[in-house]
Amino acid sequence: MTAAEQLSFLPDINEKEVRNLVIKELKTYRSLKIQAENRREQKEKGVIGLFPQLRKSTEYNELKVKQMDRALKQCLDQDEYSIIEKKYLSPEKIKDLEIMIELGLKRDKFYQVKRQAIYNIATALGII
Fold first, then answer.
1. Which residues make Cβ contacts (< 8 Å) with residue 23, sequence separation at least 6?
2. Residue 5 domain flag
3. 1 to each of 4, 10, 11, how far by Cα in Å?
4. What is this structure's pTM?
5. 24 pLDDT higher than 70
């Protein structure tokens, strides 16, 4: 069986759906990372129940943060990480053009690197 025949068994990937899922997870990750830091700080200070907790999902959320950390730090190169960090992990809203200029990337190269970064994150997290 040729490589092309083997690849034909793989289902088509909806790139837009993958991108939207990864972006949603990145935005959730920001909040969960702060939540984990707050819990750690509360534990260090011996404070329990500082805020009401409607859901008991601490271990689940900490695992999501740990796995997202690993995906970001180990599967992205420097340009990919910089784009993702500036675009989705920063509390400031930054336009693609600003990031392109800051990183010295041309438009086509920027979008190629951004697309690859999202694909790498999706693969590392098991989304695709």
1. 88, 118
2. no
3. 8, 14, 17
4. 0.83
5. yes
